[in-house]
Amino acid sequence: MSASLVRATVRAVSKRKMQPTRAALTLTPSAVNKIKQLLKDKPEHVGVKVGVRTRGCNGLSYTLEYTKTKGDSDEEVIQDGVRVLIEKKAQLTLLGTEMCYVEDKLSSEFVFNNPNIKGTCGCGESFNI
């Protein structure tokens, strides 16, 4: 299994009109730049893989790992030269989601703005559909 990248937060998106896209996941320019930066020193990895695991107080949590290969059932999103693979278990939960990278004085993390989730826990790491 590949090593984990960084922390990720999930945010419920409400009362925001999302534009339909062909990709299961869209990346903001900050997410694209951060993924490029993370992969620059890892030429053996082809991209990052987003998965979902059962944990946390609210049910599910996203995982983000380096990946060397594309699995048979992985969904592939290529945007601005960045390759993101989505595990089969996470594909339906990510439809229409925007992945962003946010950095401030105290933290830096990938944030998933997901219109499909019904709620998140207080820590922002887990969600329910």
Automatic annotation (TrEMBL):
Gene Ontology CC annotation, any one: cytoplasm
Keywords: Iron, Iron-sulfur, Metal-binding
Keyword Metal-binding: yes
Cited InterPro entries: ATAP (IPR016092), ATAP_core_dom (IPR000361), Fe-S_cluster_asmbl/transfer (IPR050322), FeS_cluster_insertion_CS (IPR017870), HesB-like_dom_sf (IPR035903)
Signal peptide, first to last residue: none
UniProt superkingdom: Eukaryota
Annotated GO biological process: iron-sulfur cluster assembly; protein maturation
Residues annotated as domain Core: 25-125
Entry GO MF terms: 2 iron, 2 sulfur cluster binding
Family as reported in the entry's similarity comment: Belongs to the HesB/IscA family.
Function: Involved in the maturation of mitochondrial 4Fe-4S proteins functioning late in the iron-sulfur cluster assembly pathway. Probably involved in the binding of an intermediate of Fe/S cluster assembly.
Assembly, per entry: Interacts with CRY2, but not with CRY1 (in vitro).
Name this protein carries in UniProt: Iron-sulfur cluster assembly 1 homolog, mitochondrial
Phylogenetic placement of the source organism: Eukaryota, Metazoa, Chordata, Craniata, Vertebrata
Gene designation per UniProt: LOC107973768
